[in-house]
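Moderator note: this is an archived Q&A kept for reference. The question asked for a predicted structure of one protein chain; the sequence and the answer are reproduced below.
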Amino acid sequence: MTGITRWLVVLLLAFGLAGACGGWDEASGQTPQSGWEFFSSPTRSPSDTRWGSYKNELRLEREAAVAKHNYCPTGGCVVRLENVVVNPPRVQRGRPAAIGLTYTILTSDNVGIPVTIIREIVHAGNSLGRTTSKNLRTPNGTFTQEVNFTLPADSAPGLYTLKTRVVTGFGQDEKSIDFTVD
C-alpha cells in the first residue's frame, strides 16, 4: 500500500467508527441535539390536521423536582402529566395554535428511561389527528413540551377534545381537555 492509500483507509475507518458509535448524524452531518423523535399521523389531504414543529425543555433538574413532589425513591417511579393547555384557548380554523404540556419523570436510581407522549385531537367522536414523540433516555426532572398544529379552514366550529398521555414502562398518566374552535 502506498502512503496515500493508507491515509485514506485510516480516514475511512475513523469516519466509520464515529458513525457506528452514534456520535455522528449522517442525515445532517452534526451531533444529534436530543434523543426525541417526533411522529405524526399521516396527512392525507388539505382537510386534515397539520402538525408543526415541537420543542422540549427541561424546567426542573432532578433535585428540584424531587423536592417539589416530595419524592421518596422507595415509593417507585413518578410519571406525572401535570398540565395540558391549548394556546390560544379559542382556536381559529386555518390558523396556527399550540399544545403545551408539563410532565415529571422521577426514578429511584436516577437513570433516563424511555418516554412516549401521545396527543390526539377529537371532535364529535372522530379523531382528527394524532402525534407521538418518543425519547429513549429521558432524564429525571420536570419538562415542558410544545407542539404546533393547524386545523383546516373548513373545520366544524364547536367543542374539541385534546387527549394527552405520557407513557413509560413504569406507568402512565393522561389528561383530556376541551377547547373551542371558531
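Archived answer notes: Residues 1-32 form one domain.
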